[in-house]
């Protein structure tokens, strides 16, 4: 179970404390078990600082605290505080990565919805798309719907999410799909072949939680070869 440690302190020497945290990151490289650290400063009280450190489990957090570098830096941090820091240990019971879930839902809609009207609640009206198949970026939700309808009309898509990585307002999703070529696709008559394709999409989410921009990379050439649209190359 993911474990969080919340460290609450007061200090008038924040810059020095921040430099100590840089030292800890450098000195524990390859040894620390912490996976994520966030430091926040109270907007109404600049001396009030909160750090949240994430670990894979409570046991990993205990291993991290036993590192000599952690103990040494901690003692120096305490010396910079106006009073003794307080600690809160938290077992994570809910971890809702909302943008990641929305990216996953996007592909579910492409594969299962009768029409693409659900995208209205997921994608901004002034959406921008970047696709290697197009010389220029595409603009607008309506254009995205039309383009997705081409794929949906040509294949009975079944998506699988292979990996997702989120940072800030971006979510990178590595995906694959399988489907039967059931209708004309870019001038290629239906072949009835069962084909597959892999790709990666980077989503940028706007302030309202909707998809504002996408960068697409996918194995279009491999798909065309599997559909028999490319001449075989001579050895």
Percent range for β-strand residues? 25-35%
Number of strands: 10
- Helix fraction bin: 25-40%
Q: What gap, in angstroms, lies between the N and C termini?
A: 54 Å
Structural class by sheet pairing and helices: alpha+beta
- Regarding quaternary structure, how should these chains be classified? single chain
**What is the average of the pLDDT values?**
92
Q: Which overall shape is indicated by the principal axes computed on the Cα atoms?
A: elongated
Describe this structure in words.
This protein has six helices and ten strands. The relative contact order is 0.12. The strands form two sheets. It has a six-stranded mixed sheet with strand order 6-5-10-9-8-7. By secondary structure, the protein is an alpha+beta fold.
